[in-house]
Amino acid sequence: MNIKKIIEQKFMLVIALATVIGFSAFNILDEPESGWYAISADPGDDITNPADQKIVSFYGTSTAPTGSCSPTQQAQDPCAVFLNMEDYDGPANPLGLSVQAITSAPNNAEIEANHNGSNDGYSREVPE
Predict the structure, then answer these.
(1) From the CB of residue 18, how many other CB atoms can be counted at a distance below 10 Å?
(2) What single string gives the DSSP state of each residue in 62-104?
(3) pLDDT digit of tens for each residue in the chain (128 aa)?
(4) What letters, b where the CB count within 10 A reaches 16 and e where it falls short, cover 114-128?
(5) Among candidates 57, 114, 56, which has minimal Cα distance to 84?
């Protein structure tokens, strides 16, 4: 095998690896944003208990959940929560954490009430 070809192959591998690592570093540095977060509970857990509410995804910074999950619905089980992450000091990726863990010291996020028509900071399931 030609030495020049080996060097070219290894050089391209190093460039590709550096590119992947570089873009990954930017994802790690992103701070969680304030906004609506979808929540769920494991089977047998109480979805109304913040200790059992697990963050599963991020809806967005200003767009309230729509469809089967509404901030104006108050009589059903919660399906999303609006978290103010301004003072948040927890893991860079809050997915999988409980609402109680995120809003307790040392993480310090806050449930923001009166957002998009929600009285308590939660969106709730819309009855069918």
Answers:
(1) 10
(2) SPPP-TTEETT--SS-EEEEEEE-TT--S-S--TT-BHHHHHS
(3) 677 776 666 665 566 665 666 555 444 557 899 999 999 999 999 999 999 999 999 988 877 787 888 888 888 999 999 999 999 999 989 999 999 999 999 999 999 988 788 889 999 998 87
(4) ebbebeebbbbbeee
(5) 114
Residue 110 and residue 123: Cα distance in Å, rounded? 15
Of the CA atoms within 13 Å of residue 95, those in its CB half-sphere come to 6
For the beta carbon of residue 57, count every other beta carbon within 10 angstroms.
11
Q: Is 127 helix (H, G, I), strand (E, B) or coil?
A: coil
pTM, rounded to two decimals: 0.74
Please provide the DSSP assignment of 9-78 as one string: HHHHHHHHHHHHHHHHHHHHHPPPPSEEEEEE--TTS-TTSTTT-EEEEEEESSPPP-TTEETT--SS-E
